[in-house]
Every structure is written in C-alpha cells, then in structure tokens.
Amino acid sequence: MNLLRGDGPLIRIGHRGAAALAPPNTIASLEAALAARMDMVELDVIALPDRSLVLGHSLRELRSDPPTLEQALRLIAEHEFTSLLADVKRPGYESELVDALRRRDLIERTLASSAEVSTLQALRRIEPALMRGRTYPRDRLHLGKRRTLVPAAGPTLRALRAALPWRIGRLLSEAEAAVATLQHRLVSRATVERCHARGAAVLVWTVNDPELLGRLDRLGVDGVITDDPRVFAADAAKLQA
Question: Which of helix, strand or coil describes residue 135?
Fold first, then answer.
C-alpha cells in the first residue's frame, strides 16, 4: 500500500467511518463511508477487559453494544477499493489486532496509527509488513501536571507548529513509521517537505471545511481525514466556480 500521492489526487479518508452521516465508529458510519467510496476508512480500535476488540474512542465513551472490529473488517474485506486506518488508542492489544487483520487478509490494506510509541514498536515486532503511522499530537497533551486539550490558537500551538519540522524525523524514526498522521493546525509546508524527503506520507485530521481542505491540498499533504465525505465534492465545486 502506497500512501504517497505523488502527482495524484488527495487520498480521501472517512473519520470514524463517516461521522457526519451516522454515529461514529458504528457499522452504519462505516457503510456510509463505503457508499461514498472513500479511499480509506479510519476507525478507532480499543480492547474490552476480556481483550476482545471493538470500535470506540475510549472505554469511557463506549456504546452499550459496540460493534466488534471483526464486523468492520468483514465489511472492509468485501470492498477492495478501500483500505483501513486503524487508530490504536492504547497499548496492550497489538497481537489481537494483528491476528484479526491476518484472518481477513487485510495486513497489506491496513495502516495502524498511534500516538503510543510502544504500540508501534510492538506492531513492528509482531508483523513487520503492517504499515505504521505516528499520530501527533495525542488527543490530549500533558502540559505540566495537567491534561489539557491542544489549544486552537496561541503561543503553545505556534510553538508546536514551528518545532514540528525539526521534530518530525525523530517522531517517525522512533517506530520506523512510514506515515505521519497529523492534526491539521500543526501542518506546514516545511513539515510536509521533511516527511516526503524521508519517504513518509502525511495524513491530516480532522478536516471538514472545503477552504481548509484546499489549503492543505496546496501544501502537498497526501491524504485528508474528514467526518463528511461531501467536503471533497464541495472543494471540487469551489475550485470550478
């Protein structure tokens, strides 16, 4: 699986299926993304206490009857035009994930991305053929002793964005990751160029605005993760206007 777009179009990735069209991380959301013929579908993968794998952002936010990863993989395996971006939220269930992908013959159609270096290192040991992506930043950052959301603006954001071109090589090399999965506010042309110089693709989350999508396209990112597949049609219409 090659995620470097070269001179081709942006890779279109549905976030948690197609979260604007159906509840996220559900079979309905996955089916909506498949109906929109997304090139890739991003799904959050977590483990229950019994180590079975389900779709969900966290145990705290989990639905009462969450869909299993197996249900999602069965659908993806039936649609050869799409691939999977498995967002691995916590360490500890890497073997179960690899086993599930092997059963559906999806290793070569899957990118496993995580902010956890230990998870990516474990996946590399268990299944070197599985493509790995480094998610940055985490959903939440540790700033001092407090857990806080990444700010939408301000000096912290500017500092992270300015430093990223110089940090991205280490962030990727720690896990021998072939993809940088980045929050859109931190993406700059310099970061994209540094990644491409290493042969690493850049996927950006979460983009729901056509104007932002167009700007990222011009920066040369390889793929965009969106809640709403219709954003790609809206961007195309804007360019033609």
Answer: strand
pTM, 2 dp: 0.92
Checking phi first, is residue 51 left (phi over 0); if not, alpha (psi -120 to 50) or beta?
A: left
Look at residue 2 and tell me if it is in a domain.
no
Measure Cα distances from 82 to 4, 11, 85, 145 in Å.
16, 10, 10, 41
Evaluate whether residue 6 is within a structural domain: no
Whether 165 is covered by a domain: the verdict is yes
* Mean of pLDDT values over 143-155: 48
CATH of the domain at 171: 3.20.20.190
- Check residue 104 and give its pLDDT: 98
For 166, the 3-state DSSP assignment is helix
Q: What's the domain count of the chain?
A: 1
Residue 200's domain comprises 11-135+145-240
- Record the tokens describing residue 131, joined without a space: 């493509």
Nearest to 82 by CA among 236, 230, 229: 229
Looking at the domain assignment, is residue 167 inside a domain? yes
| Rounded-to-integer distance, Cα 52 and Cα 69, Å | 9
Query: In terms of pLDDT, which residue wins out, 169 or 241?
Result: 169
